């Protein structure tokens, strides 16, 4: 006698329901996710005493991954890091080059990869249909960015763990919480709109 463990079937993500298939199947949405992250990176608020500024990047990473799903979300961030390492001015304040990835803030950039997988995987399970469930996923994804960023920051600068957390986490908690809340609050209404438009189109 065998017992089969069945998992819920993956659900379509927002991009797959809202956009033409030619965009989701050709990689166009990956490029759009990369472009949004690059643009958001230029929105910068310096934090006194910290080498890590508040930027719009995390909002773009979380939102695009939730809308695109884990595979496309990850691909958009891999492309983003690759373009920046290759010399395109896509990092914060137009920074570029491999030295940015291996510098003090490089861990946060690497953390984008893990965060995009978490946010995208949540959407595959339908968390982006409700604000509270999506906010929980966004919080987990943000924690992944912090974990990678602070660990890297401590190693590169020689800071102790407590100092690294004080410099690399504490100043950004309120801003990142607001960005996660904004991303979480935008997705359910977007789903309702797409569902309404799709049902209207089907009825015609």
Number of helices: 10
- According to CATH, the fold-level topology is Arp2/3 complex 21 kDa subunit ARPC3
Q: Total number of β-strand segments?
A: 2
Provide the spatial order of strands within the biggest beta sheet. 1-2
Give the overall shape, derived from the CA principal axes. Answer: globular
Helix content: over 70%
C-alpha termini separation = 50 Å
In round numbers, the mean pLDDT is 90
CATH secondary-structure class: Mainly Alpha
Largest sheet: 2 strands, antiparallel
Pick out the low-confidence regions: none
**Quaternary status:** single chain
* Global Rg: 18 Å
Family: Belongs to the BioY family.
GO molecular function, one term: biotin transmembrane transporter activity
Main location: membrane
Membrane topology: Multi-pass membrane protein
Structural summary, described in words:
One of its GO terms (cellular component) is plasma membrane. It holds the Pfam family BioY. It is found in: Cell membrane. The chain crosses the membrane at residues 25-47, 59-80, 100-123, 135-159. It is a multi-pass membrane protein. The protein is mainly α. It has a single domain (14-45, 53-193), classed as Arp2/3 complex 21 kDa subunit ARPC3, CATH 1.10.1760. Helices cover 70% and strands 2% of the residues. The protein has helices at residues 14-18, 21-26, 28-40, 57-68, 70-86, 98-102, 106-124, 131-157, 161-168, 173-203; strands spanning 44-45, 54-55. A two-stranded antiparallel ribbon has the order 1-2. α3 packs antiparallel against α4 (57-68), α4 (57-68) packs parallel to α7 and α7 runs antiparallel to α8 (131-157). 41% of the residues are buried.
